[in-house]
Amino acid sequence: MTMDDTSHRIHNPAAPDEIVAEVTLTAPAGLPGLVANARRAQKEWAGVPGAQRAARLNAFLDDVEAACEEIATSITLEQGKPLAEARGEVMKSVSEGRAMAGHAMLAGTMAVASARPFVRNMIVRRPRGVITAITPWNFPILTPMRKIAPAIAYGNSIVLKPSEFTPTAAVILDRLARAHFPENLLTVVFGGAELGQALSTADIDGITFTGSVGVGRHILAAAAASNLAEVSLELGGKNAVVVNDFEDAGPALEAIVGAAMQCAGQRCTAISRVIVNDEIAEDFVAALSARCAAMIVGDGRSPTTQIGAITTAAQFSKIAGLVELGIKEGAVCTAGGGRAAVADRPHGRFYAPTVLDRVTPDMRIAGEEVFGPVLSVLRYRNFDEAIEIANAPRFGLTSALFSNRNDLINRFVDEVRSGMIHINQGTVPDSHMPFGGIGDSGFGSYSVGPSAVSFYTTEHSVYNQYG
Ligand code: NAD
């Protein structure tokens, strides 16, 4: 990535000499005018009946689906993930958007009992207004669409700032949206931290942010000191899988490796810690390491690639530094552990899928988000210890348990500190279920599914005396 005053070039992480896109940067000074236009568009859109809004959103999603190949190619070129994964990301964004169109049609007025005669009480929901969305680089279409679809379905306008590393999917969405929505209902702006900061303090009504904890805190503080806009933060994770028992190790291994290594581990919901029962640990770690070592790392455009490039140079250094420190602190590397050499892409940012065994809770790699293809294995002797290790980090996004014991499953559901909980499966969420985290992993309402209504609408108590 290179930036000058007005234009911004994006480089391919698999071949950093290759420039794959260029966008024109938005001047922060122009934001008030863009927000004013978004506010006018929102007023018009709020007058469109909800069922029509849903139908138009679905027609837009048809176009997104039709542009799947173009969008997926841009994602692979800028973010680095294999093309098949990028196609899956496009289709998941469409299915989440369709689910939101359905939810929004069912949200609205609720009749409530009155305390007085001849008074009808209602709780009415209205569109919140102008929404700001600020998104990261790991899911260039899924995260923006997770904000665009509910904003539009519930009658808002939206100003989106995609990551400066992966802007092209948003450029395409902007182009497709023009055929379906009023002008300025979706506004896409380009820039980095300075523009993000200006957007967070603009005259807007809600900020939905996905990204790192540090920037999330910054945005919350900026909103508190300026516009007091409603804030929803989706932040990092240090997700654990507890492996207690199984009839067959195969499905558990497949689910864990998939959830850990998809997107080269650059997923907020990636499994990063394997907390394993000491009695089965030796064989399980050997099988896990063998599976990871066998994965094909390479350019996402190659159909055989299973793990693509690391998107940014800073992220690559962070992964390498945390793994080195983990080994220095006593972890035993049983797979990977460094840069992966890819013959035809000598300058690509490829990191080998890595397993670190004998990690202990006091090591930095045990508590810090790596956001790369790295699994830390921690061992336990009883289930109390497993829960204690799982709950140690301040993060609380998603978690999984492999066990056939009903008592342990119920304890896990009650005691693990995470917003999403999976039993005997990896950490892939459905398109219509609430998505979010607790502790350092999130703030405000969850997105996707029924929870989104509380962020994208405001609530009004109405008392109507009719007699
Ligand atoms: P980041 O926080 O560095 O950047 C995210 C976005 O914020 C970018 O668009 C960036 O330009 C903008 N930004 C940076 N500084 C800003 C500021 N001061 N004010 C306003 N905006 C600012 O995150 P990233 O490196 O792009 O993404 C990786 C992080 O995102 C990881 O921590 C990961 O866990 C998290 N993430 C969370 C989820 C989730 O749903 N919980 C999903 C994906 C990624």
Could you write a compact summary of the structure shown?
The protein has 15 helices and 21 strands.
Tell me the name of the CATH class of the largest domain. Alpha Beta
Total number of beta strands? 21
Using the coordinates shown, work out and report the CATH topology of the largest domain.
Aldehyde Dehydrogenase, Chain A, domain 1
CATH-derived architecture of the largest domain: 3-Layer(aba) Sandwich
Strand order of the largest sheet: 13-14-15-12-11-17-18
Q: Which compounds are bound in this model?
A: nicotinamide-adenine-dinucleotide
CATH homologous superfamily descriptor of the largest domain: Aldehyde Dehydrogenase, Chain A, domain 1
- The fraction of residues in strands falls at 15-25%
Largest sheet: 7 strands, mixed
Classification by helices and strands: alpha/beta
Number of domains: 2
Number of helices: 15
Q: State the helicity in percent bands.
A: 25-40%
Described by the principal axes of the CA atoms, the overall outline is globular
Distance between the termini: 67 Å
The radius of gyration is 23 Å
* Low-pLDDT runs: none
Mean pLDDT, nearest integer? 96
Quaternary status: single chain
Protein architecture, described:
With 467 residues, the protein is of the alpha/beta class. It folds into two domains: 7-235 and 441-465, Aldehyde Dehydrogenase, Chain A, domain 1; 239-434, Aldehyde Dehydrogenase, Chain A, domain 2. The chain contains 15 helices and 21 strands. Strands 13-14-15-12-11-17-18 form a seven-stranded mixed beta sheet, sandwiched between helices. Helix 12 (364-367) links the parallel strand 14 (354-357) and strand 15 (374-380). Helix 2 runs antiparallel to helix 4 and helix 4 (83-106) runs parallel beside helix 5 (142-153). The protein starts with a strand and ends with a strand. The mean pLDDT is 96. The protein binds nicotinamide-adenine-dinucleotide (NAD).
